[in-house]
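Section 3.1: Structural characterization of target chains.
Under the original work plan, the team committed to producing a structural model for every single-chain target entering the pipeline before any wet-lab resources were allocated. The record below documents one such target. The sequence was received from the expression subgroup and is listed exactly as submitted; it comprises 145 residues.
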Amino acid sequence: MTTLREAAALAVPERGLAVVATLRAAGTIQSSLVNVGVLAHPETGAEVLGFVTYGKVKLANLRVRPQVTTTFRAGWQWAAVEGVAELAGPDDARDWLTAERLRGLLRDVFTAAGGEHEDWDEYDRVMADQRRAAVLISPTRIYSN
């Protein structure tokens, strides 16, 4: 297993559930479960992993130390994607990011991870109210068993 899509495919049956590990200031690992998908980076077009979060710990860690590992699994088959995170959100401005582009990006990340929504206006409202950010991970290493 050597590609980003092959790694992420392991989690498709579980709506993209994967473990994301970030690095705390003390050098210890912080892990959490998120829905992750593969999509094109909105500026470069390169394939990246993406998830949406408002988790204060993850965001604080990634703002200072953008190294992240995402682990996918299906039974005993697993794949890990190491990479560098780029945050895009109301508190993480990017030159290419407008309010409208953020709305679309959050939707794109959600659907890439297998999400569906019956009321996109409500989804947009909740994302804005919670100040959610998109985490885009550019892979640097992919490996598996």
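Strands lie at 17-23, 29-35, 37-40, 47-53, 67-74, 77-88, 133-144.
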